[in-house]
Amino acid sequence: MTQTRAASRRILLGATLLVAALIAALLSPGRATAASLQEVTGFGANPGALRMFRYVPDGLPVGRPVVVALHGCTQNASGYGTGSGWLQLADRWGFSVVLPQQQTANNASSCFNWFESGDIARGQGEAASVAQMVDRQLADTSGDPARVYVTGLSAGGGMAAVMMAAYPERFASGGIVAGLPYGCAQAAGSPWVCMYVGATQTPKQWGDRVRAARPGYAGPWPALVAFQGTADYTVKPVNMTDLVRQWTEVHGADQVADVSDSVAGYPHQVFRDAGGRAVVETYSVTGMGHGQPVDPGSGSEQCGSAGAYVLDVNLCAAYRMGRTWGLG
């Protein structure tokens, strides 16, 4: 009888310790807690008629960064947020994500209209809608206005360049994946020429297009991180070359890389301004077609999940951007 009571006490004690451990794990401030995607309405006048989604990890402290992630054509906010790895990293590192979503009424292929003059000017169209989303997110989460970043794939990358040019005071840096320089469609005469051939512009002409988007603005300008597949036949690699020309010129840097090495086996370059600050960084993903680079897995440098236009190349672009931006 005594042995039975002792065994019962041991079982009860073990169960109590297990419950206590589970509670401690759940309450641990370092634990990444999954949330869910939420649609936000009434975030502003919304002249571009976009939808706003956001992801805020449960228990996110105030003063945390905000990442704006713009999907590519035929994609949506939820699929891009998950596939790219940004939601995974938000849980891991502790920041919130704004996910604008295009509507087919604006563009039949769900592309952001990076090529339409009425959507790329400050205070107008889709650019203004995204800026209003940023303001709403900062207000709702008490986010850090000095640590807001914008990124996107393809047409989303083109719109990320728009936001960097038209609203430079709102973004510390931008990350453009298989995207286009600001004003490329206007410089080339059409979006198709821009995508497939590129526009003939000098670095100063590229820089002048950015400066014209925010007249009288003296800086600071957002830094740039760019990714491009060398086998991309939808947005040709010349567009990353032109992004480098545009944003090095805006920052007063030269066209010669200060660092040329490799990351995960892919060519990587860094361009610094006169003060030694890295203002443009590029990854040329050898053999990759049109899409977002990801590296699915549970490793510390892995993120994302492969799918349409989200390509497993053993390098996660979101992770590399996040590390450059000091998110994790």
Task: Tell me about this structure.
- This protein has 10 helices and 12 strands.
- The chain is α/β, with parallel strands linked by helices.
- The protein has a 10-stranded mixed β-sheet, with helices on both faces. Strands 11-12 form a two-stranded parallel ribbon.
- It starts with a helix and ends with a helix.
- Residues 1-32 have low confidence and may be disordered.
Short structural summary:
The protein has 328 residues and is an alpha/beta fold. Helices cover 35% and strands 19% of the residues. The chain has helices at 2-27, 77-84, 86-93, 125-141, 155-166, 184-188, 191-196, 203-213, 238-250, 317-324; strands at 38-40, 51-55, 66-70, 96-101, 148-153, 173-177, 223-229, 259-263, 266-272, 278-285, 292-294, 310-312.
Defining traits:
35% helix, two-stranded parallel ribbon, 10-stranded mixed beta sheet, alpha/beta, 328 residues, disordered N terminus
Distance linking N and C termini: 57 Å
The strand count comes to 12
Q: What structural class do the secondary elements suggest? A: alpha/beta
Overall mean pLDDT stands at 91
Cross-sheet strand order for the largest sheet: 1-2-4-3-5-6-7-10-9-8
- Overall geometry comes to globular
| Strand residue content | 15-25%
Write the layout of secondary structure elements.
Elements: H1 2-27, E1 38-40, E2 51-55, E3 66-70, H2 77-84, H3 86-93, E4 96-101, H4 125-141, E5 148-153, H5 155-166, E6 173-177, H6 184-188, H7 191-196, H8 203-213, E7 223-229, H9 238-250, E8 259-263, E9 266-272, E10 278-285, E11 292-294, E12 310-312, H10 317-324
Parallel strand pairs: 3-4, 3-5, 5-6, 6-7, 7-10, 11-12
Antiparallel strand pairs: 1-2, 2-4, 8-9, 9-10
Helix pairs in contact: 8-9
